[in-house]
Amino acid sequence: MLIKALCDYSALQENKTPAGYCEYDIHYEILLTPEGKIAAINDVRIPQIIKLKNGKTKINYFPAMEQFPVRTEKTDIDKNTIEHRSRYIFGLNYDKGTLTPTDATNKAAKSHKCFCEWNEKFFENIDSPICKAYLNFIRTWEPEQETQNPHLLALGKEYSNSHFEFGLDGSPETKLHNDSKFKAAYEDYLAQLNADSDSDDTELSTCSILGEKLPQARIHNKIKGIKGGMSSGGTLVGMNDTAFESYGKKQSYNSNVSEKAMKMYTSALNYLLSKRDHYKIIDDMTIVYFAMKKNDTEECNMFAGMFSGFEDELNKTVVTEADRNINTVMTQLKQGKTADMPYDHNVDFYVVGLTPNKSRVCQKFVYHDKFGKTLDNVMKHQHDIAIGDYKRQVSIERIGHELISPKASKPKKDDENDTNKVPPPLTAALFEAILKGTRYPEELLSTVVARVKTDSDEEKNHFIKINDVRTGLIKGCINRKQNKEEIKMSLDLENKNPAYLCGRLFAVMEKIQQDSSEAPLNSTIKDNYFSSACSRPATVFPKLYSLSQNHLKKFENSKLRNYYNDKCLEIIDDLNGEFPQTLSNDDQGRFIVGYAQQYRDLYTKKSKDKPEENSEVKPEAKSEE
């Protein structure tokens, strides 16, 4: 389905990027002298003013987009005609302020050698000033002699992750990739490649994508831009090197995709991955999305906005006017109003999750529906995970943060084995549930429950043990699983589920303990007993009830003491005086939500039957149980 959709999308688009080219982010321009020496390295990124919520502004820099030749030869995975990657151009690695030509894998040396061999051969007969300067650079640059190059050292840590273009010193308007003589030579090269392809023994068969009898693609072009250790790109379609030959077919002809379709889908996907408004990176997964129309900017901006959570406390900025407009539309939808929507409600919309796997690009999920239905399902998701009066939308990044330990170390770049990331299968299953409006994955509930039971409340730690996001995720998981609104957005006194009641009772007992002491406690029953009470109530609550009675004796305010005592007895009566022996994972989720909602209610001043908490409450001694 994905390849067909990409081919259809390619057919709709204007041919902005010619065959043999691809758009890349460019950060710096290398100005060369005619002799091939570096005269300067200039920053070509585009500044953008960001307005902060506190009224202040800051400047972010975004790379420029340029069309560069892409690898088209079928022999070496790393050859590019005109290179933009620092390791290939300079043959140096950057590590902690030091440039070195060698590392454990010797990648820099191999990459630079490959770059020099191919580009020297290609440019040796092109007669133009910028091409000659580029050729001289290739022939004279020696990585071992440039470890102290001031231009490269000035880039600092930007060196490793930046892309470069080449210009001519004294003629800044002259760009290597736009040089007319280079383009003419490159077009001749592409034409020869096509001629060679047409004249070889390529098999003709009916293309499974286009339905035409066409030459089959023996090798598929690489997809670039996938997050996670695939700097040189990878293929979306796998080729069977040996097994398919047993059926009398030639190697790599098992995909039944024509050369024409291959070029259409790979160019379309590379185009989408080069546009910041068509993809989003969540941990190790790259989410690509597009609408089946010529200009799908409005749909893609709206889709990105639905997952960004502009009002989330983790996001302190409102990036652009477009973001504010999206947030306004979503607010109107939440209020049941018909928003002034700039997008096509009935256009087909696609979302795909991609992850790296060695030299392959793995397709984790593909979603397809009308854009209006997609928006409705995402809005339903935001409603289903809302809790209390929490009116801000929750970003997908915030959900991911709540699924890992707040004490986890910062993930290392491109570390596929990092346990402090959300596993791609869970991310994929979560996206599918959101987009389709179906049950959330079981692993989501179990992960949130585990985090609540094992994390602790710490000062200056945003990820507190129990918060509205975690509580809302549990609520959404249980309600969708039961296919009804079993758990309400706020405290539900009619909910007689034993696990929910146990959570409520725990919150009341904790509040009793806190109010029995004037000074803050070093620890409460939540710190010492929450996990065991959540898992095995019958083994813990008798002791907790006894402790709460001791704490109540410290109250001099009899009305407050009676209020809390009656609240405990009321909940115990609903439990018929029996505590569950063990709680399942779902019931542990109910316990957590019951606790969170009751705790919130106890701190709400609107409670009509609750006496004032005043100085009449005099603690006898500080308690830590």
Short synopsis of the structure:
By secondary structure, the chain is an alpha+beta fold. The protein is 41% helix and 15% strand.
Walkthrough of the structure:
The strands form six sheets. A four-stranded mixed beta sheet has the order 3-2-9-10. Strands 13-14-16-17 form a four-stranded antiparallel beta sheet, with helices on both faces. A hairpin with a 2-residue loop joins strand 13 (279-282) and strand 14. The chain is elongated, with a radius of gyration of 31 Å. The two termini are 59 Å apart. It is α+β, with helices and mostly antiparallel strands. It has three domains: 21-198, no CATH class; 276-482, no CATH class; 498-602, no CATH class. It has helices spanning 2-12, 86-90, 107-123, 129-140, 150-153, 158-161, 180-199, 259-273, 297-308, 321-334, 371-384, 396-402, 424-436, 442-454, 468-482, 498-515, 525-535, 537-552, 558-574, 585-602; strands at 21-26, 28-32, 38-43, 46-52, 57-62, 64-69, 93-95, 98-100, 164-168, 171-175, 204-206, 213-215, 279-282, 285-291, 317-318, 348-357, 360-370. The model is unreliable at 72-77, 240-248, 310-319, 413-418 and 614-625 (pLDDT under 50).
